[in-house]
Design goal:
Its EC number is 4.2.1.1. The protein has nine helices and seven strands; from the N terminus they run αααααββαβαβββαβα. The protein is of the alpha/beta class. Helix 1 crosses helix 2.
């Protein structure tokens, strides 16, 4: 009995040792096939090894591709270094290439298979070549698996430094295009800001020159419902005063300034029916003497500044044209926000004037001697009493040149 128990114990120990050795062999095979990125168990090692290989295949693929690519790169560099040394020592030639002694053609085929140029493709891991049908069967199974994955459209991540290089080049190109677009956007924004500043300061720059008063005149209608050449909030005034100035710094004659750039500046003042205007009365008293066309009267000691409103700080301004021929676009208009009041009787004297001379049989009253409002044509009307550029849609100062 004792002898039999000893034999049974020895058999159990041997069985345990065999199981441990088999388990170790399976683990070695799993590690070997895991390094290749395709999972374990394809070339033998038992049903348990194949099952575990299939379960861990995806995880090992994800975790091992970058590391395998680096190891393969190091191995390839080492082989190239060995080949160079062999060639130096005279051991090169036909039999010097490849790990299996397959010559230059064999080395080329092997490199193609390693980096995607041969059957394997995709840079999924260097294949170890050795003798024996079992190893060849495993390689064949591996190639078939890789072909299947390639058909499914799954690409390897370790596609060689060529793919990585191309990706980096494309990334740099995209970065350059993005920076170029951003720079163009910044330049365009700077141009817009510069144009806005120039528009905002254009009148002030033009007013830096000295302007001299050349003449002043009035426009009026036959009734108090109309007569002005500008409107404010679409409202017309019975009459409008224009004081015409010319740029004496830039031009030597008024006639030159009429057609020149920044040649004229005209101040417009609205007239509203109300109380009698004392400053205007001296002019009104002289009008009957020049009732007919071609009449002349001596008129001295009159200061046109008395016709300006008390507030001259608030006004609208824009670049436009004369409202009478030759209609040249050389005028900086300055339209006062505050109007002046004149009496009905004073306006009646203006309406009593005639377009015709005394010798003509048919007399024509001088009324409605204004130009109708013109479209803005894209111009900007600015105001001095707001901190921003104000469009004519809100200020509605509608008189503009053709």
């Amino acid at each position: 009995m004792g002898r039999k128990r000893e034999e049974e114990e020895e058999e159990r120990e041997e069985g345990t040792g065999r199981r441990r050795r088999k388990s170790g062999e399976r683990e070695e095979k799993k590690e070997e096939w895991g390094d290749r990125g395709e999972g374990g168990g394809r070339g033998g090692g038992g049903e348990g090894g194949r099952e575990e290989g299939r379960v861990g295949r995806g995880r090992r693929r994800r975790e091992g591709r970058v590391g395998r690519w680096r190891r393969e790169e190091e191995e390839r560099e080492g082989e190239e270094e060995e080949e160079r040394e062999e060639e130096k020592e005279g051991r090169g030639g036909e039999g010097g290439g490849g790990r299996g002694g397959g010559g230059e053609g064999g080395r080329d085929r092997e490199e193609k298979e390693e980096w995607g140029g041969g059957e394997g493709g995709g840079g999924r891991g260097r294949r170890r070549r050795g003798g024996g049908e079992e190893e060849e069967e495993r390689e064949e199974e591996e190639r078939e698996g890789e072909e299947e994955e390639r058909r499914r459209g799954r690409k390897g991540q370790g596609g060689g430094e060529g793919r990585v290089g191309r990706w980096k080049i494309e990334e740099r190109r995209r970065g350059r295009r993005r920076r170029k677009r951003e720079e163009e956007d910044r330049e365009e924004e700077e141009r817009r800001r510069r144009r806005k500043r120039e528009e905002g300061t254009g009148r002030r720059r033009s007013m830096e020159d000295q302007f001299r008063l050349c003449q002043f005149h009035f426009h009026w209608g036959e009734s108090n419902a109309w007569g002005s050449e500008h409107t404010v909030d679409r409202r017309l005034f019975p009459a409008e005063l224009h004081l015409v100035h010319w740029n004496s710094d830039k031009y030597s004659l008024f006639e030159e300034a009429v057609s020149g750039d920044n040649g004229l500046a005209v101040i417009g003042v609205f007239l509203k029916v109300g109380k009698r205007h004392e400053g205007l009365q001296k002019l009104v008293d002289a009008l009957p003497a020049i009732r007919h066309k071609g009449s002349v009267v001596e008129f001295t000691r009159f200061d046109p500044a008395c016709l300006l409103p008390s507030n001259t700080e608030d006004y609208w301004t824009y670049h436009g044209s004369l409202t009478t021929p030759p209609l040249t676009e050389s005028v900086t208009w300055i339209v006062m926000k505050q109007h002046i009041e004149v009496s009905h009787d004073q306006l009646a004297v203006f309406r009593s004037l005639l377009f015709t001379s005394a010798e003509e049989e048919v007399q024509k009253s001088m009324v409605n001697n204004f130009r109708v409002q013109q479209p803005l044509c894209g111009r900007t009307v600015r105001s001095s009493f707001t901190s921003f550029l104000q469009e004519a849609a809100s200020a509605d100062v509608n008189k503009q040149p053709h």
